[in-house]
Amino acid sequence: MVAICDLEVDVNGEEAFLVSKGILSSFSGRLRKLFSKPSLSSTAETSKVVFHNFPGSVRGFELMARFCYNNGKIQITPSDACLLHCVADYMEMTEDASSFPSLIKLTEVYLLGIPCWPWSEIMSALRQCQDFLPSAISSGILDRIVDSVVGRITTAGVGDATPSGSSPESSAFRFSCDTRSSISTRSGIHRAWWFEDLALLNTDMVQQVIASMVLQKVDNVMISRFLFYYLKCGAHGSPSEKRKATETAIDLLHSLDRSCVSCKGLFNILRVASSLRLSKSCHGRLENMIGSQIDQATLDSLLIPAPIGIGSLYDVSLVLRFLKSFLANVGQASMTRVKRVGCLIDSYLAEVAPDPSLEPSKFAALITILPDAARDSHDAIYRAVDLFLEVHGELSEEERMKICCAINHDKLSSESCMHLAGNPKFPSRTAVQALISQQSKLKSLLQNTDSAPPKDSKHKKNRFDNNKLDCSTDNEKLSAQLHEMQWRVTELEKICKKMQTQMAEVMKNTISNPSGSRSLPMLCSRLIP
């Protein structure tokens, strides 16, 4: 007997089917409810139904129709069972809705075997769920498949056979995309056998799988390595798709233990983030992650070019945000980490100080943002300030003082103190402070020498007294030299003031008599601040 095709079904606007209303309604509680409404129980020859969110679209409807036309009998693959289960849930094809075999019950039998499915079938089902993700989530199918995937990943440890369809040998080629994942040891490659398969999933599915792995406390190091691999090798498509993949990866990385996330990998994301125009909140999370472990960064990583229109060579503002984040997360709880950052920033200062476009306010912020305890010596800061002042000769005395105040003279070596005292680029007050600091060190040294305990032996006591006498004599000579230098600085200040007055008179006369103007001597030009 030939069935009458009296029902037109529009499936998600992709394709229309002419089917038997009676046959489909006998299996679907949803259709029976729909046709029981007075407005749809017309005597027209053909009725029409439009579905907008049919699971699996055309493929899902064809499988359902085949099941109905074959009186509840159908041969399907495990992955199709997932799709049909969602279709059955959507169309209410339960035992209560029909006296015919239930599609829900049939698919449940298949789904009970998920733990025994080959890896290839598991991944096929997962990829298929991407096409009807909302239905897969609401029906609970996705959770069952994802749990199986995570279980396979966590139980396939070193020494176990990898699931069918993947192997450590085939994985060796995959990691050419990411040096972080290119684990040279055989056991390392084995642990990452699943990277390529999951990298083929779309962003929404990756988010579902990784979120489940985080909840099940899978090794955060492996999760972070996979996410870096996914962004480099798996996240393709339009700019909007790449942006979505990057933002999702950043959110997932942010949920991991910070110590398990590669600082180098985060910098790699940062380099491409500017072209993707990430959301402000997402960019902030990325900066926060980098900042919290900036002590693991290298100088090359920090030398990030400034955005177009800024003017300076490097993005100093970004580094300042990193440091603020580091101090907010770490504070001074770990002085070892803080001092490591201090050494890193000293190297960074040496690179950015010669930039003539760098604003004095940013340079001052950079040398003052870390606590004083971050550095045992301020020689590197002195050298950076010296470089900065050399290329910013137009700075006023006040601006120079604001920058020079960051130098802790007590942490300068004797050589740096002496160099600063005679450095014409530094304000005279700073030179005096350096001399005073050096003098204080000498006084402290003399006091310590005078208070040194005597030796037990008389012979040793005489030797100690002689050494102390020699040391005291040397210290007195050095102290006298410092006093003389301090006096010379004072005299130079007086000469500068006097010459400034003379210069004002010369300039006044030059304006009134241009023909008699002449250039200043080199010495004057050096002495005038």
TrEMBL record:
Outline the segment boundaries, as ranges, of region: Disordered: 446-470
Where does the BTB domain start and stop, copy by copy? 5-71
What does the sequence similarity comment in the record state about its family?
A: Belongs to the NPH3 family.
Organism listed in the record: Musa troglodytarum
Annotated PANTHER family: OS12G0117600 PROTEIN
Q: Where is the NPH3 domain?
A: 192-441
Keyword field: Coiled coil, Ubl conjugation pathway
Q: Does the keyword tRNA-binding apply?
A: no
Record PROSITE patterns: BTB, NPH3
The name under which this protein is listed is: NPH3 family
Q: In which pathway does it act?
A: Protein modification; protein ubiquitination
Q: Name one Pfam family in it.
A: NPH3
Record keywords: Ribonucleoprotein included? no
Coiled coil (residue ranges): 475-509
